[in-house]
Amino acid sequence: MVKQRVWFVYFLSLLSGVAGLGYEMVWSRSLGLVLGHEFPAVLAVLGAFFAGMALGAWSLGSQVRLSPRPDRWYVGLELAIGVWALVLAAALPALGHWIGLAIGPAPGPVRHWAVAFGGTLLALAPATIAMGATLPAMERMLVRACGRRRWVGGLYGANTFGAVVGVLATPFLLVPALGHAATMVLLASVNFLCATVAGWRLRPAAEPPTDVPSTTDSPSRSQALVPVLLGTGFLGLSYEVLVVRVASQMLENTVYTFACLLAVYLLGTSIGAAFYQRWARSDSLQPRLQHLLTATGGACAAGVALLLAGPAVAAGLQKALGGGMAAALAGEGAVAALAFFVPTIAMGATFSHLAQAASGARLGLGRAIAVNTLGASAAPLAAGLWVLPAIGAKAALLATSLAYLFLARPGGRAGWAGAGAVAAGVLALLLHPASPGAPDQLDGDRMLSHQQGVMGSVSVVEDSRGERHLMVNNRFQMGGTTSAYSDRREAHIPLLLHPAPRRALFLGLGTGATLSAAGSHPGLVAEGVELVPEVVAAMPYFARVNGAVGSTDRLRIHVGDARRFVRSTPHRYDVVVADLFHPARDGAGSLYTVEHFRAVDAVLEPGGLFCQWLPLYQMDLETLRLIIRSFLQVYPGATAHLAHYSLQAPILGLIGGAEQRRYSLEWVRQRIRDPALRTELGRLRLAGDLELLGSLLAGPSALAEFAGPGPLNTDDRPLVTFRAPRFTYSPQATPTTRLLELIDNLSATPGEVLTAAALGDPEQASRVQRHWAARDQYLRLGTRIQPTRDAEQLLARAGGPLLEVVRSSPDFDAAYYPLLAMARQLYDQNPEDSRRILLELERACPQRGEATQVLRSLFPL
User: Fold this and answer.
1) Best CA proximity match to 48, nearest among 379, 501, 500
2) Each residue of 90-114: pLDDT tens digit?
3) Mean pLDDT of successive 10-residue segments in the chain (861 residues)?
4) Is the distance from CB of 385 to CB of 113 less than 8 angstroms?
5) Is the separation of the CB atoms in 249 and 437 below 8 Å?
6) Cis-peptide, bond into residue 287, ω within 30° of zero
7) Mapped to the 3 state alphabet, what secondary structure does 625-690 carry?
8) Residue 707: predicted pLDDT
9) pTM above 0.70?
């Protein structure tokens, strides 16, 4: 009977862990949508969660310990958690919105963290306070029923194993299928189940044993436990925060990456607690505590060393398993195991030993948990915001290892020998040139800048050609000098489609080239919002493509979260332009939700436009359809535009507003009065009659038909966040293939873009249609022609097909100008072919004079 009761309470502890970590995952993501995805906000939510638990363990733990009916306490605690979870399922978006407004659009880090922490602490307090007292209640239930005191390791192990289940089930199953609110309701039902079953099965024994303090207890014993409990809580979560930060530079950094890392961390902790429960035979504090702390410090140092091999291990395992999402997740799990598995086993055993000792002391289990959790709540702020930027990830991780030795206070020959071995290993790692998460460089590359910030590491790399590239977390390229043509077109296309923009907002900045292009429009005031401060700090390295950013006060930069900025800014804008957000990156999917699109619509002036650029090379067509459906929900008259004609990195822009505008072929000529802007547009091939309208790929009806019926990407059910990583882990087709499929499935009609007057002229409508057809023909042609630097070979492969494109639409410059360039290149080695190309161009486009001018200059009469 006693054994059955023990296993039953263990099962309750497991279920409680499932719900607890499930809540943490859901609440942190729900609050992140409104508080912001900056590191201060992320860490504030985590710290507030632990602070609430610490408050509950301290304030309620002693009462639970003295109660003759801890089972009733447990039932009440589970009911309180479940009831408040139901309240949050309905109220959390509104609560988070109010906190977000209090934070403001671009706060300083101290204000940001303080408001996010305080607001989150208050919002979650009823549930987290109750969570903090559940483990002490279960421990007293077993002590009262079974008489033994050594239950902490088993209960803690079961609870953290349940947490593993909650961490994995929430992102992989529950939220994608149900959404945040319904997941909270489901988790609340787990709390209600625990309360109901506990009230039914766990009736107290007829004569519960008297709770007699341990004969080994003394005030000094409790006093000795407090700093160690506080320190191990702080160091354990510091190690987690730092490793997760480093791993984000090695792995894909999706929602599943974090789940894998946290699951391994909790699994190791659970195993360590179970080992302690099974094999520890005494509550004696020393010398076991010294050995455990020393072992934990050594394990952390070993984890740092193993983490150096993380990228190679992940890549090798993924290749061995044949690729795909399962193989990629196995690789990420392996990296997590290298860094976490052994250290967390030691951490789990260490906490179990400390908590068990406290349970038999005057301190008590509840207050021991409170002190430990209080230390954990301070770790995100200290390690993530202060230590990491100050000394770097490697030094911070190794400092954690040494801090465990300090807590151990080694004594005796064996103790000092162990501590000395660990310290020597730490010193060797510190002197080793390699660092986990360090940026990769190719031969000939030169690192111009590398900044380790709280949000990520940002590097500026110059390649052997002198081109500069902006890298974030060593994996994600955010543009460079080679992408300036596309970056600047991404600003001009939406700005030109508005008749007279006076104020614009750019969400996401990268190198600053897109925002800089806005400075070319006279009188336009433009604001840019960038999440990562180090990205803004790196902009001077790209001065040749973003020079206007620092040369005019009409361009203003804010560091902050784009979603929160849009919701809290007091301004209204004629044009809002959203940069390319990689949909698989953790947090980016929230920038494609219906609620965010509505928030942008709310800050548009009457007649304003919103342009959302989409990286087709980083998403599959199903994700694209999902985003288009969500966009059309807010902007039913939206159109789709190509940023350029690249096959390797195609970019699609969704442009919508309150009204669907119409244009004439003279729109750009009439719209542009400034000579400098006209020159800029000429370089970017946007100054001609058809070049702007020629970017149109689809009208509203074709977009709606392509997207089809289906679910939307919402704040409650952020499907992009969970679907996009599947493509990143196992891409199914090339970007070129996806672009051609879009061309085959999307279309536009002149009636969707031309004014009534322009439609009244059949020639104008015909020119537009011929231009679109030439564009599609040109893109398909690019898939069949092998690139070469040899002008004669290029002429043989592409000359005839390009002439066909020009004949179909003389206005299509993307085919016309390459033929002119070929003629110039061939003049020295094959003047006859050069002359022939120019004559063909004259015949194909008699209304254009460029070929005639080149012909006369090269072959004068």
Assistant:
1) 379
2) 998 888 888 888 887 877 777 777 8
3) 77 94 91 73 79 91 84 93 95 84 78 83 93 90 71 88 95 95 96 90 53 52 85 95 88 89 95 88 74 94 93 90 89 94 95 86 86 91 85 93 90 82 93 83 80 82 90 79 93 95 95 94 94 90 85 87 91 96 88 96 96 94 96 96 92 91 87 90 89 93 95 95 88 86 92 88 90 93 81 80 90 89 86 88 87 87 66
4) yes
5) yes
6) yes
7) HHHHHHHHHHCCCCEEEECCCCCCCCEEEEEEECCCCCECCCHHHHHCCCHHHHHHHHHCCCCCCC
8) 95
9) yes
CB proximity list for 659: less than 8 A, separation 6 or greater: 607, 637
Task: In whole angstroms, give the CA distance from residue 709 to residue 706.
Answer: 9
The neighbour count for residue 6, using CB atoms within 10 Å, is: 17
Residues 6 or more apart whose CB falls under 8 angstroms from that of 319 comprise 327
Q: What is the DSSP code string of 768-809?
A: HHHHHHHHHHHHHHHTTS---S-HHHHIIIIIHHHHHHHHH-
Chain centroid to CA 628: 20
Contact at 8 Å (CB) between 611 and 493? Answer: yes
Angstrom distance (rounded) from CA 15 to CA 326: 27
Q: Residue 514 and residue 563: Cα distance in Å, rounded? A: 19
Rounded-to-integer distance, Cα 592 and Cα 604, Å: 17
Contacts of residue 744, Cβ cutoff 8 Å, sequence gap at least 6:
none
The secondary element (H helix, E strand) that includes residue 568 is helix 562-568
- Distance, CA of 748 to CA of 768 (rounded, Å): 10
The Cα 257–Cα 67 span in angstroms is 43
Round to whole Å and give the CA distance between 798 and 784: 9
Complete DSSP assignment for 509-525? -TTSHHHHHHTTSTT-E
pLDDT on residue 31: 85
CA distances from 173 to 179, 561, 719 (A): 10, 28, 12
- Nearest CA to 171 out of 260, 237, 248 is that of 260
Tokens 């625990």 correspond to 194
308: left (phi over 0), alpha (psi -120 to 50) or beta: alpha
Q: Quote the crossing angle between the two packed helices 39-66 and 70-103, to the nearest 10°.
A: 160
543: left (phi over 0), alpha (psi -120 to 50) or beta: alpha
Phi, psi for residue 680 in degrees, rounded to 5: -60, -45
Cα separation, 637 vs 532, whole angstroms: 33
Bridge partner list, 810:
none
Q: Give the number of C-alpha atoms closer than 13 A to the C-alpha of residue 698, restricted to the C-beta side.
A: 24
3-state helix, strand, coil in the chain (%, to 5): 65, 10, 25
Question: Look-up: residue for tokens 């006279």?
Answer: 522
Question: Structure tokens of 673?
Answer: 């009065």
As a whole number of angstroms, the distance between CA 141 and CA 154 comes to: 13
Amino acid at 541: Y
DSSP letter string, 279-312: H------TTHHHHHHHHHHHHHHHHHHHHTTHHH
Q: What Cα–Cα distance (Å) separates residue 288 from each residue in 222, 301, 350, 352, 430?
A: 16, 20, 9, 12, 28
C-alpha span between 121 and 52 (Å, rounded): 6
Question: For position 597, what pLDDT does the model report?
Answer: 97
Cβ atoms 520, 682 nearer than 8 A: no
CB 130 within 8 A of CB 65: no
**How crowded is residue 192: how many other Cβ atoms within 10 Å of its Cβ?**
18
CA end-to-end span of the chain = 111
710 dihedral zone (left: phi>0; alpha: psi -120 to 50; beta):
left
The answer to whether 332 and 314 have CB atoms below 8 angstroms apart is: yes
